[in-house]
Write a structure and sequence with these properties.
80% helix, mainly alpha
Length: 471
């Protein structure tokens, strides 16, 4: 494999030389728009399914996504490792190492998606649904949805891989544009496949998965074409070999695996939390409220905060690569303040108009609405903690400290909330508000520990490099 060291589009040096507020915002707002658009698309899916199928369809999508994310997050750990390498090399002005890192991450991800996730996910889907204690009527709707998502996961993985690579290199607008394209296409396809149109029958819940599979697959292929077009800050060339570069892959896994285990721990905590939700007296109603409130509406905070987390990772990583650790440190504070502003606005709406928000998903009366309203009020408080936690997680991961967030997640997303739920269940009997309280305490714990870990400053001494390419 050979490649010139020049890049047709230069790295944005304002990230390491200009005002930090502007640098963080320049990377954050496109990611925030993209993530909010994705969240809105999920809301539309849930609203259509809820009105056509009922709350069992909402619960089916919610539990399926919990399982899917739990599995996919391990593959996506490669993206975190890639982001560390790309940000460091971009900050140091080394485009050839940036391109190699992204290309090797792409090859490795496709092998895992097609060779592992698709067959294993399809086969294990029924067992996974049983493990989370999903109600029988929910499992009927969830099984085909989950299988489609596993088999056709490659497109989604490509989209997130290349989006992360470009953001880490300083280009957040291209992923935003393609994200908007993907979301728009997904909504159109879901209208067709969920409700049916002309000769296309109504597929209901599984129609949401069909639309997602097609939209992400098309967008992933567009991304690949653009990378070969020599118009992006990251580029591929036809001279690149399919041969793995084990030193690059080892670096990807060195930084990525802790993030993968972290993601698994967090989502495993979510899946096990669903077991507690499923054990409540009104299990299906509680699962539906949890799916809509926590998975969809709360995403208005988390997806925005995830955009800020990605921006913080890129700015902190690039500045450390350029030799400016003080700027890396300040970037996390800037991002956390931006996230708090958004969390306050969304949280106020959770308090003031919860019934209106739930009615979008066909939840207009009954116990499911009462449970949903109660949950949203707890999440309004929880959002303040999680947005700060994610900003500081971005600072840690972007500079190469991926082990710290792993330990923090195990404590705050698994041990604390699940331990509280188990204690409530063993002593006073588990009620919905006990579970919602455990979520808030877990997020508060994650916030405090993330800030403390970052301020320790161990990330300043982490080294990142790969050998020059051999002729």
């Amino acid at each position: 494999m050979s490649e010139t060291a020049s890049s047709p589009k230069k790295f944005d040096r304002s990230i390491v030389e200009g005002p930090l507020n502007r640098a963080v915002w320049r990377l954050a707002w496109p990611a925030m728009v993209q993530n909010v658009m994705g969240g809105i698309q999920g809301i539309i899916d849930q609203a259509m399914v809820g009105n056509l199928v009922g709350y069992t369809g909402n619960a089916a999508i919610g539990v399926s996504l919990q399982i899917f994310i739990l599995v996919i997050v391990f593959v996506a750990s490669v993206f975190t490792g890639m982001g560390v390498l790309v940000a460091r090399f971009a900050g140091a002005g080394e485009p050839e190492k940036v391109n190699r890192s992204v290309y090797q991450a792409f090859l490795f991800t496709m092998v895992l998606a097609v060779g592992v996730m698709a067959p294993v996910g399809y086969w294990l889907a029924p067992t996974l649904l049983s493990l989370i204690n999903a109600a029988p009527e929910v499992q009927v709707e969830a099984l085909p949805y989950l299988r489609i998502m596993f088999v056709f996961s490659a497109g989604m993985l490509m989209f997130y891989l290349f989006s992360g690579a470009l953001r880490a290199a300083g280009d957040a607008k291209t992923p935003m544009r393609l994200g908007i394209f993907m979301t728009t296409l997904n909504v159109v396809l879901n209208i067709v496949f969920i409700r049916g149109l002309g000769p296309v029958p109504a597929f209901g819940t599984r129609g949401a998965a069909i639309g997602t599979a097609i939209a992400t697959g098309v967008t992933g292929l567009v991304f690949v074409w653009m990378l070969f077009s020599n118009k992006l800050v990251v580029r591929f060339s036809c001279s690149m070999s399919f041969r793995p570069e084990w030193q690059v892959i080892k670096s990807l896994l060195r930084f990525g695996l802790p993030a993968g285990v972290q993601g698994i721990a967090m989502n495993l905590g979510g899946v096990l939390m669903l077991r507690f939700v499923g054990s409540l007296h009104y299990s299906a109603e509680s699962q539906a409220a949890y799916s809509v409130g926590y998975t969809e509406l709360f995403s208005l905070i988390t997806w925005t905060s995830m955009g800020l987390m990605g921006a913080t990772a890129a700015v902190a990583g690039q500045n450390l690569g350029a030799g400016y650790p003080t700027r890396s440190e300040r970037s996390t504070l800037v991002a956390s303040l931006m996230g708090l502003a958004v969390a306050v606005v969304v949280g106020v709406s959770f308090f003031l108009i919860p019934q209106s928000l739930l009615s979008i998903f066909g939840m207009t009366n009954g116990i499911v609405v009462d449970i949903g309203v109660e949950l949203l009020r707890y999440l309004a408080v929880s959002g303040l903690f999680i947005t700060v936690a994610l900003a500081y997680t971005g600072g840690l991961q972007g500079t190469g400290d991926t082990k710290g967030p792993l330990y923090i997640s195990i404590i705050s997303q698994v041990l604390v909330p699940l331990g509280l739920c188990a204690a409530f269940e063993a002593t006073v009997g588990l009620e919905p508000h006990h579970i919602w309280s455990a979520i808030v305490v877990g997020h508060a714990t994650r916030c405090g520990l993330s800030v403390m870990r970052f301020r320790q400053g161990k990330w300043r001494d982490i080294e990142v490099d790969i050998d020059p390419i051999r002729a």
